[in-house]
Amino acid sequence: MKKLRITLIKSGIDRPERQKLTLQALGLNKLHNPREHEATPQILGMIRAVEHLLKVEEI
């Protein structure tokens, strides 16, 4: 399964609570601090929900 490097590039401040919880579930708590995840359907759905705040790279 392919891996994704996910980086938070915009802050979660002043976003709906659901988006903040999604960022927390992805392990993104600081700007420009990348996390690596497997590309499972659950992870892809979370990314889709907050993609306007993220940079996603395939590794």
* Low-confidence segments: none
| CATH class value | Alpha Beta
Q: Can you tell me the CATH architecture?
A: 2-Layer Sandwich
CATH level-four homologous superfamily name: Ribosomal protein L30/L7
Number of domains: 1
Instruction: Quickly count the helices.
Output: 2
Order of helices and strands: EHEHE
Major β-sheet annotation: 3 strands, antiparallel
The count of strands amounts to 3
What gross morphology would you assign? globular
Question: What is the topology?
Answer:
Layout: E1 3-8, H1 17-25, E2 35-38, H2 41-49, E3 54-58
Antiparallel strand pairs: 1-2, 1-3
Explain what the structure shows.
With 59 residues, the chain is an alpha+beta fold. The protein has one domain: 2-Layer Sandwich (Ribosomal Protein L30, Chain: A). The protein is built from 2 helices and 3 strands; from the N terminus they run E-H-E-H-E. The chain has helices at 17-25, 41-49; strands at 3-8, 35-38, 54-58. Strands 2-1-3 form a 3-stranded antiparallel sheet, with no helix packed on it.
Key structural traits:
single chain; 59 residues; alpha+beta; Ribosomal Protein L30, Chain: A; 2 helices
Gist of the model:
The chain is 31% helix and 25% strand.
